Amino acid sequence: MSATPSDRRIRTVAMLVNPAAGGGRGERIAERAAARLRSYGLEVVSLRGAHAQESLDLARQAVADGVDALVVCGGDGMVSLAVQAQAFSGVPIGIIPAGTGNDLAREYGIPLTSPEDAADVVVAGRAEQVDLGQATPDGGEPRLFASVLCAGLDSAVNRRVNEMSILRGPLRYVLASAIEFPTYRPRPFRMTFDAGEPGEETVETEVLLSAFAITRTYGGDMRIAPDADRSDGLFDVCYVGRISKPRLAWHFRRIYSGTHVGLRGVTTRRCRTVRIDAPEVEAFADGDAVAPLPVTVEVLPGAGLFLVPG
After folding, report:
1. Which of 304, 107, 280 is nearest to 207 (CA)?
2. What angle do CA 176, 150, 219 make, to 5 degrees?
3. What is the pLDDT of residues 44-80, one digit of tens each?
4. Whole-model pTM?
5. What is the mean pLDDT of residues 215-238?
6. So what CATH class is 2-130?
7. Which residues are tagged catalytic?
């Protein structure tokens, strides 16, 4: 992992806020974090878009204006939105966790329960350069992501989670999995890995769920890619083929510890790019919808910059 000490003192912060995050707690969490940052003498400008595109436009403008850090108060989806504005800019992203899964905050060691402690990382932490992923639907616009792109049962669960209004935090993923699992069936996938490179390979197989990971976890701390290195220039890929429902249910808990790797029916590999195609399957990245397949995914080495504990 590439750790880069910040070459400038942070004086101005743009805080991108999702007021609805955390079941409506996002606004209160943002206020506490902003107060902490101001107590250090930082100038904090709040960015609150009426919708995702407006929030992205505000973030891009803040980066263009030369803000010292772009701080996100929200969940993984809000961080994903921020990297669209931040990539390759040299402006670091700080995270104030306020989402459902908060997998990116966990990955970067950000305190989950105290906005003040998370704000302290923005002030006293270091900037770490990491990889990002880019997903491009056929005929569509590219979309950057910071953690995991998934397609299959896991993306169907993500869709269900985003539509739920009950429960908080990772319990939503548990309930959504219980709802989707009994009726979801494997789909015929065609995956072309590292097209145009010496190791190019096309795999055609039935897939129940699949993940293409920059970081280790998704779905509220499920360790789908336990060995992923966020700065090695590669995706850690994990996909599950046709497997009996009782066997999958029995082993499901092992995803939380990462010990599913090596089980019969679980395939892992690494790649720089992959084109994924399957009927009636939607790709999700960082917890939000990308597009129906086919989608081409590639690693952007060193494109991201995050503030992490020093």
Report:
1. 280
2. 40
3. 999 998 888 999 999 999 999 999 999 999 999 899 9
4. 0.91
5. 95
6. alpha beta
7. 288
Nearest partner of 82 among 286, 229, 236, 218, judged by Cα: 286
134-302: CATH topology is: Tumour Suppressor Smad4 (2.60.200)
Interatomic CA distance for residues 173 and 181, integer angstroms:
11
Encoding tokens for residue 195? Answer: 């097209």
Q: Let me know: does 268 contact 237? Beta carbons within 8 Å.
A: yes
Query: Where does CATH 3.40.50.10330 sit in the chain?
Result: 2-130
Judging by DSSP bridges, how do beta strands 43-47 and 148-152 pair with one another? Answer: unpaired
- Identify whether the C-beta of residue 218 lies closer than 8 Å to the C-beta of residue 173: no
Predicted pLDDT at 23 = 61
Question: Using CA atoms in the order 69, 74, 79, 85, what is the torsion angle rounded to 10 degrees?
Answer: -60
Contacts of 19 by beta carbon, 8 Å cutoff, 6+ apart? 26, 27, 30, 48
Q: What is the CB neighbour count within 10 angstroms for residue 262?
A: 8
In angstroms, rounded to a whole number, what is the distance separating the alpha carbons of residues 234 and 236? 6
Q: What is the CA radius of gyration of the chain?
A: 19
